[in-house]
Amino acid sequence: MIRRYPKRDFKLVKNGFKVFVIGELLAFCGAFYAYTQLNKSRDFRFWMHERLPSGLEFYYRVGEFMNYEQYKFIRQVDNETWGINKETKQ
Question: Domain range spanning residue 54?
Answer without folding.
Answer: 12-89
